[in-house]
Predict the structure.
Amino acid sequence: MARQVTGAARRVADAAEALRDEKFNARRIELAEAALETLGELGFARTSLREIAQNSAFTHGVFHYYFSDKLDLICCCVRHYKAKCVTRYDEVVATAKNRDELTEGFLGKLAATLRNEARMHRLWYDLRSQAMFEAAFRKDVLEIDKSLEAMIWRIASRYAELGGKRPASSSAALYALFDGLFQSALLRHLAGDKTAIPDLLDEVRRLLPTVC
Amino acid sequence: MARQVTGAARRVADAAEALRDEKFNARRIELAEAALETLGELGFARTSLREIAQNSAFTHGVFHYYFSDKLDLICCCVRHYKAKCVTRYDEVVATAKNRDELTEGFLGKLAATLRNEARMHRLWYDLRSQAMFEAAFRKDVLEIDKSLEAMIWRIASRYAELGGKRPASSSAALYALFDGLFQSALLRHLAGDKTAIPDLLDEVRRLLPTVC
DNA sequence: ATTCGTTCTTGACAAGTGTCAAGATTCTGG
DNA sequence: CCAGAATCTTGACACTTGTCAAGAACGAAT
């Protein structure tokens, strides 16, 4: 019976610990989300823990309590960012009944992203560049890059399928192409170029039928 | 005669001033070149003026004498970097007598660049990302981006010409494609992925005939 | 050789950085 | 209700940062 009691106690203790862990992790994500605000505003180079704390409802000590150091915090930010990003076009892909619907849905989301989430995306490009210097970022960044490539591939192969074809390029090339176009458009958009978004849409509209 | 004398004096003074200016500018470039070493090693975020000075033959005060502030220095670095970069493939384009020669010349330079100048190129991607946050960088960065796009366009249109064709895509799309592929390969290469370079070469070799 | 302008060195300053530890507060199980 | 753990605040630390000013070293013209 002692064994049963300890067994039950163990289960309870485990459950409690799991709950604590979950709560701990939820808090980490809250903090990461707050940090993303400031990171998107200032970029990696100019963002300090204190600045993050001041632009949020937290004090700078809390960040040290939940993260072992600054890199740990930013890695958590990056990972969290990924989850939001990767499913952006999935609904469009799932619901589009023909090529035109897919095209327009894709272009619409593309334009909206560029317009409304420019800050988050410049941060992504910033952190991807940081990964070229800081080994600690590489694993997460490479993983996100893979996910984004897969996301583009889902769009492209669905587009091809709706035309009874197969994508004409490799997944890597398609991702490079769209990512390169988006990056360039983002920079121009942030520089105040009003034609950046329409130019991107034109380009993608023209490109889609030729690559898929 | 007084007029002649003052005229001559003016000419002499002007020449002296031009000489001083030239010397001043040459020194700026020396300093920028030294700064590029450290920037390529550490990236924008982690590079300080003192670190630059310590990794060079200069003291940190000299940088303040020749540059109004840190941004001024880095802008000068970026501009100087541009000049070196943009002509990289010109000889190959000028001398290649057929598609195969152009392909092999291009791929050779591509691989060599990735292998030997990875640090300079990760710095370029870093600074291009910084330009999304720091308006002071934008003008120079956008200009360099244009030059690089033109460089790719020269290769592509020559390749097309050697096959009696015209490039099948816009200049913007071609640049986005190759830049995206290069950026991805660079990150993988820096992460220690031995297949990054051969994969890039394969991809480009396959792509060239389909886009031009 | 002396003077004057250019070039460079040195040291200092204030502000900002990541980190941490001591203690206040809040939560929770008994 | 209360003790102990979890969570959070505050303030301090050692250090780095960009900037600058005072003056030394240098070069060239007189």
Remarks:
- Chain B has two domains: 2-77, 86-211.
- Chain B is about 80% helix and 0% strand.
